[in-house]
Amino acid sequence: MSGLGEVAGEAGREDARLSERLHRTLLRFNQARLAPGFRTGGWRAAVQQETQLRLLEGEYVEAERQRVAAWAAEAPEDADGFIAWFEDLKESGPGQHDPLFPWLATQATREQMDWFLTQEVAGEAGFDDLVALTQLQLPTRAKLELARNYWDEMGRGREDAMHGPMLAEMARKLGLKPTDEDTVWEAHALATLLCAFAFNRRYTYHAVGALGIVEETAPGRTACVNEGLKRLGFDMRVRRYYALHSTLDVKHSETWNKEVLRPLVEANPACARPLAEGALLRLTAGARCFERYRHELGLDLKSLS
Question: Cα(103)–Cα(21) distance, rounded to whole angstroms?
């Protein structure tokens, strides 16, 4: 049995190495295709390389889809049933009520909180850009709600209230120096998944489901981080990003479900399956991330329960 255990352990480590290589490759790909650039004489070679990377990205997403296919197939195709199923994911979905977050609120040291926040900042995909990419050619009602969401992300036109810079300012005030190399691959996987959905129109409804479940499940986690920062003595100037999302995302979730998910399913019940898959895939990626965070922080589930 010990021999079998060693083989299984080595197989697991090899899987982790392959996953890390994959997501670091896709991370660089997304950084390049999101960045404004200039034309070059080598554009044909660049397009050929991009094609290979998009195939790699597609194979990754399709493999992940297979993991949640049976669960997603349970999602009702009537609007009332689907919304009830979707809202229940806040309780029953992967990664929900992970003990990591109450621990951050009540026990994490400054050093441990800094490590966690460094991972979070480095793995941030840019919710505003993801919403902007996702809203292309959506029906009017859904498009308007994504526009309102985007406007909130943009601080309603005020630079000091923009959510992305707010997170960056928090990192600066805490002295965090996130790097791609020092970030666990599971954190990058959160971003690569959402970018894959947003960039590929065949995954539009996956993107809508994934972004919607972020809005639904984020308030509880961000409230815990905010409490932990408050316990460690940080004022609202540092805590602002997490304090804001612990309350604002509750409203975002309500309107996303009402103005985006419900009308999409009402108009076309076939949307239910990809919306469900997107939500489950995002939650599963988050659950992997939380597990890796606990491992790196030396947390034992038994001691946290």
Answer: 30
